[in-house]
Amino acid sequence: MKFTYCPDCGALLSGRPLGDEGVVPWCETCGKPWFDMFPTAVIALVHDAAGEVLLLRQSYISTEFCNLVSGYIKPGEDAETTARREILEETGQEVISLEPVCTRWFPKKQMLMIGFFARVDRRELRLSSEVDSASWHRADEILPLLHQTPTSTSRALALAFIARRGT
Q1: CB distance 78 to 45 below 8 Å
Q2: I need a surface site. Which of 22, 51, 101, 147 has the fewest CB within 10 A?
Q3: pLDDT tens digits along 47-77
Q4: How many domains in the chain?
Q5: CATH code for the domain of 13
Q6: Which domain does 4 fall in, by range?
Q7: Region label for 159, one of left (φ > 0), alpha (ψ between -120 and 50) or beta (otherwise)
Q8: What are 114-163's pLDDT values in tens digits?
Q9: Residues 22, 98: one domain?
Q10: Is the whole-model pTM more than 0.85?
Protein backbone atom coordinates (compact mmCIF):
# COMPACT_ATOMS: atom_id res chain seq x y z
CA MET A 1 0.00 0.00 0.00
CA LYS A 2 1.36 3.36 -1.00
CA PHE A 3 0.21 6.32 1.06
CA THR A 4 -0.94 9.54 -0.58
CA TYR A 5 -2.54 11.00 2.55
CA CYS A 6 -1.39 10.74 6.16
CA PRO A 7 -3.25 7.91 7.92
CA ASP A 8 -3.10 9.89 11.19
CA CYS A 9 -4.25 13.39 10.22
CA GLY A 10 -5.38 13.11 6.58
CA ALA A 11 -2.93 15.71 5.21
CA LEU A 12 -1.60 15.27 1.68
CA LEU A 13 1.87 13.76 1.90
CA SER A 14 4.88 15.35 0.23
CA GLY A 15 8.18 13.76 -0.71
CA ARG A 16 11.15 14.29 1.60
CA PRO A 17 14.68 12.90 1.42
CA LEU A 18 15.31 10.60 4.37
CA GLY A 19 18.88 9.31 4.62
CA ASP A 20 19.60 6.13 2.67
CA GLU A 21 15.87 5.62 2.01
CA GLY A 22 15.84 8.37 -0.63
CA VAL A 23 12.67 10.40 -1.06
CA VAL A 24 9.80 9.04 1.05
CA PRO A 25 6.19 10.11 1.60
CA TRP A 26 6.25 12.66 4.45
CA CYS A 27 3.56 14.30 6.55
CA GLU A 28 4.48 17.92 7.27
CA THR A 29 1.74 18.16 9.91
CA CYS A 30 2.77 15.09 11.92
CA GLY A 31 6.45 15.33 11.07
CA LYS A 32 6.92 11.69 10.13
CA PRO A 33 7.43 9.39 7.15
CA TRP A 34 4.91 6.90 5.79
CA PHE A 35 6.69 3.97 4.20
CA ASP A 36 4.93 1.62 1.81
CA MET A 37 3.19 -1.23 3.63
CA PHE A 38 2.62 -4.81 2.52
CA PRO A 39 1.19 -7.96 4.08
CA THR A 40 3.52 -10.52 5.62
CA ALA A 41 2.71 -14.22 5.84
CA VAL A 42 4.34 -17.42 7.01
CA ILE A 43 4.66 -20.64 5.06
CA ALA A 44 5.75 -23.88 6.69
CA LEU A 45 6.93 -27.21 5.40
CA VAL A 46 5.45 -29.50 8.05
CA HIS A 47 7.32 -32.78 8.52
CA ASP A 48 7.47 -35.64 10.97
CA ALA A 49 10.49 -37.33 12.57
CA ALA A 50 10.73 -39.79 9.67
CA GLY A 51 10.98 -36.92 7.18
CA GLU A 52 7.54 -37.30 5.64
CA VAL A 53 5.98 -34.00 4.54
CA LEU A 54 2.38 -32.90 4.98
CA LEU A 55 0.86 -31.44 1.81
CA LEU A 56 -2.49 -29.70 1.64
CA ARG A 57 -5.11 -29.44 -1.06
CA GLN A 58 -6.78 -26.02 -1.00
CA SER A 59 -8.84 -25.35 -4.10
CA TYR A 60 -9.11 -21.63 -3.36
CA ILE A 61 -5.31 -21.45 -3.82
CA SER A 62 -4.77 -24.06 -6.56
CA THR A 63 -6.74 -26.86 -8.14
CA GLU A 64 -3.60 -28.25 -9.77
CA PHE A 65 -0.94 -28.22 -7.05
CA CYS A 66 -0.62 -29.02 -3.37
CA ASN A 67 0.24 -26.34 -0.84
CA LEU A 68 2.17 -25.99 2.36
CA VAL A 69 0.60 -24.53 5.49
CA SER A 70 0.53 -20.74 5.26
CA GLY A 71 -1.19 -17.75 6.76
CA TYR A 72 -1.02 -14.05 7.46
CA ILE A 73 0.73 -12.64 10.50
CA LYS A 74 -1.81 -10.92 12.77
CA PRO A 75 -1.04 -7.68 14.61
CA GLY A 76 0.83 -8.49 17.82
CA GLU A 77 2.10 -11.87 16.57
CA ASP A 78 5.64 -12.76 15.62
CA ALA A 79 6.30 -15.07 12.68
CA GLU A 80 6.98 -18.12 14.88
CA THR A 81 3.70 -17.71 16.77
CA THR A 82 1.84 -17.38 13.48
CA ALA A 83 3.46 -20.51 12.04
CA ARG A 84 2.55 -22.57 15.12
CA ARG A 85 -1.02 -21.18 15.13
CA GLU A 86 -1.60 -21.77 11.42
CA ILE A 87 -0.27 -25.35 11.57
CA LEU A 88 -2.53 -26.16 14.51
CA GLU A 89 -5.57 -24.41 12.98
CA GLU A 90 -5.22 -25.92 9.50
CA THR A 91 -4.04 -29.44 10.35
CA GLY A 92 -4.44 -30.12 14.08
CA GLN A 93 -0.70 -30.80 14.36
CA GLU A 94 1.30 -29.34 17.25
CA VAL A 95 4.77 -28.08 16.41
CA ILE A 96 7.68 -29.70 18.25
CA SER A 97 10.42 -27.62 16.62
CA LEU A 98 10.37 -24.68 14.26
CA GLU A 99 13.28 -23.52 12.12
CA PRO A 100 13.34 -20.35 10.01
CA VAL A 101 14.62 -21.16 6.53
CA CYS A 102 14.03 -18.27 4.14
CA THR A 103 12.21 -15.07 3.32
CA ARG A 104 10.90 -14.53 -0.19
CA TRP A 105 8.95 -11.84 -1.96
CA PHE A 106 5.70 -13.16 -3.51
CA PRO A 107 5.12 -10.78 -6.43
CA LYS A 108 1.67 -12.09 -7.38
CA LYS A 109 0.24 -10.94 -4.03
CA GLN A 110 2.82 -8.22 -3.30
CA MET A 111 3.72 -9.79 0.03
CA LEU A 112 6.64 -11.10 2.05
CA MET A 113 6.67 -14.81 2.87
CA ILE A 114 8.67 -16.12 5.83
CA GLY A 115 9.45 -19.81 5.38
CA PHE A 116 9.92 -22.42 8.12
CA PHE A 117 10.55 -26.11 8.61
CA ALA A 118 8.14 -27.33 11.30
CA ARG A 119 8.61 -30.74 12.87
CA VAL A 120 5.53 -32.31 14.42
CA ASP A 121 4.77 -35.53 16.24
CA ARG A 122 2.40 -36.93 13.67
CA ARG A 123 -1.14 -37.31 14.95
CA GLU A 124 -4.62 -37.58 13.48
CA LEU A 125 -5.31 -34.73 11.07
CA ARG A 126 -7.99 -32.22 12.05
CA LEU A 127 -8.45 -30.04 8.99
CA SER A 128 -9.89 -26.55 9.00
CA SER A 129 -12.58 -25.49 6.55
CA GLU A 130 -9.81 -23.82 4.47
CA VAL A 131 -8.28 -27.23 3.71
CA ASP A 132 -9.98 -29.64 1.30
CA SER A 133 -7.65 -32.53 2.13
CA ALA A 134 -4.16 -33.28 3.40
CA SER A 135 -1.79 -36.21 3.16
CA TRP A 136 1.72 -37.25 4.19
CA HIS A 137 4.36 -37.86 1.50
CA ARG A 138 7.94 -39.03 1.35
CA ALA A 139 10.28 -36.10 0.72
CA ASP A 140 11.44 -37.58 -2.59
CA GLU A 141 7.92 -37.46 -4.04
CA ILE A 142 6.81 -33.90 -3.16
CA LEU A 143 8.43 -31.74 -5.87
CA PRO A 144 6.06 -32.74 -8.71
CA LEU A 145 3.09 -32.06 -6.41
CA LEU A 146 4.08 -28.45 -5.70
CA HIS A 147 3.88 -25.36 -7.89
CA GLN A 148 6.55 -25.55 -10.59
CA THR A 149 7.46 -21.85 -10.78
CA PRO A 150 11.13 -21.38 -9.80
CA THR A 151 10.17 -18.42 -7.57
CA SER A 152 7.64 -20.49 -5.59
CA THR A 153 8.35 -20.35 -1.85
CA SER A 154 6.81 -23.82 -1.44
CA ARG A 155 9.23 -25.16 -4.00
CA ALA A 156 12.20 -23.37 -2.37
CA LEU A 157 11.32 -24.88 1.01
CA ALA A 158 10.90 -28.34 -0.52
CA LEU A 159 14.25 -28.13 -2.31
CA ALA A 160 15.99 -27.01 0.89
CA PHE A 161 14.35 -29.83 2.86
CA ILE A 162 15.30 -32.46 0.28
CA ALA A 163 18.88 -31.13 0.11
CA ARG A 164 19.21 -31.25 3.89
CA ARG A 165 17.93 -34.82 4.05
CA GLY A 166 20.11 -35.92 1.15
CA THR A 167 17.20 -37.55 -0.65
Answers
A1: no
A2: 22
A3: 999 999 999 999 999 999 999 999 999 999 9
A4: 2
A5: 2.20.25
A6: 1-37
A7: alpha
A8: 999 999 999 999 999 999 999 999 999 999 999 988 889 999 999 999 99
A9: no
A10: yes
